[in-house]
Amino acid sequence: MSINNTKGKNEILNTENDMLINQSINNNEDMEENMNSKEEIKIKLTLNNKTFNATLENNETTKELVSMFPMTLNMNELNSNEKYNYLDTNLTTNASRQSRINAGDIKLFGSNCLVVFYESFNTSYSYTNLGTVDDVDSFVSELGNGNITITFDVAQ
Fold this sequence. Notes:
The chain is α+β, with helices and mostly antiparallel strands. The chain is built from three helices and eleven strands.
C-alpha cells in the first residue's frame, strides 16, 4: 500500500510540475509576443537632398503618424533647439513630463505638434515620445538655422 501511495504522490507531483512547466512556457510565449509588438519602426527623414534614418517606438501614436507618410512638412524654427510643425490631424497621445530632451529626439507636443530637436537641454514640458534620429550628429549639422522642409517616409 505504501508503494501505491508513493506512486500516487509522484503522479500528483508530475501533474503539478507539468502544469508549472506549461504555465512557464505560456508566460514565455506571452513575453515574446509582447516583445514582438514592441518592435521599432524605421523611417527616413529627407532634407537638403540628404536622407537620415530614424527609429520610432511602436505605439499607437507612431502608427497613426506613419499612416500619414509620405509627408513633406515645413518645419519652423523655435528657441534655437527645435523644428516643429502643427499637423492637420490630432494624434493619440501618451504624454509624460520630460526632464531632458536630447538632440535627435522626435516628439509630439500636445496632440498635433510634431517636433524634431537638434539641441539637448533640460525641460519640464510634457511630450509623447515618438523616437529618435539614428545618426544625430550628421542630422543636426544638416538642419542649420531657420525653417527647413523635411520629408518623412517609411524606410525601405
